[in-house]
Amino acid sequence: MREKIYITRKLPAGIVKKLEGNFYIDMWDQEEKAIPRDVLLDKVKDSQGLLCMLTETIDQEVLESAPNLKVISNMAVGYNNIDVEEATKRGIAVTNTPGVLTETTADLTFALLMATARRLVEASDYLREGQWKTWSPMQLTGMDIHGATLGIIGFGRIGQAVAKRAAGFGMNILYYNRSRKPEAERQTGAQFSELDDVLRESDFISILLPYSSEVHHLISAKELSLMKKTAILVNTARGGIVNEDALYDALKNENIWAAGLDVFEKEPVNPNNPLLKLPNVVTLPHIGSASIATRMKMAELAAENLHNALVGSGDVKRVN
Ligand code: DGY
Hints:
- By secondary structure, the chain is of the alpha/beta class.
- It folds into two domains: 4-98 and 292-311, NAD(P)-binding Rossmann-like Domain (Rossmann fold, 3-Layer(aba) Sandwich); 102-283, 3-Layer(aba) Sandwich (Rossmann fold), CATH 3.40.50.
- The chain contains twelve helices and twelve strands.
- The two termini are 28 Å apart.
- Bound molecules: (2R)-2,3-dihydroxypropanoic acid.
């Protein structure tokens, strides 16, 4: 009998077709609605492969419901939605989609940095709401990007790709990372510093770390208090790295100047989240990797990982 793969979100037909040659495929067929938990728990019961999104929490309960599961393929580079330790104990391979989304996520990070610094959303709303009556000297003035110092926290693939963009804009670049990256330092001119120094000296802080319990609330009240009053925080990694209550206080009390947020502690973010009411916050709904080409590549790689891991040949991007 053919092995069964369950896919937790509607994927393009071409991608599903490739898997259909070797496996029996079942799929949650909605694009804009995440699979309900009870359906997921039921569907994994007889599946050997699971292709999931970052919206699904694959924890002990799911793994216990899936006695036949061999491979979990996450359609994301981050995999903090999966209990990898528990999966490993059970001999289940976990895969992700590194590399294919690096440049697209770096583009969005830089776009968000610029939109926040130059108040693009606020300026657009100002015009559309009919408030634009005249040009005036200090109207909607923001922060310069060229010549400013960018502090990148987390200098992996995406952090380095952001540094390349920043170098092109004439920024000075500092970074904090667990290990130093001499080759990337040479390529981008970025300099390694301790976290507190990066926070103190930067005009922009870009968070680009993978999320784990070790970096939960890495940026909290103390860290925000080290930042310049004119500084801008940009988070395109995971919401849980920044303590949102502390960030709200820092923005409200003007201890930092603005924030650009693509990610939130709880997603989708509650529209009543106080951060969304602040004028100095630019918010996006987790769209870092959302270009058509990149999302297709992510889906293809997720399918390929699952296929190769199940058939036992070819390249597999395993995280465990
Ligand atoms: C990821 O891949 O982890 C992003 O957050 C979504 O593309």
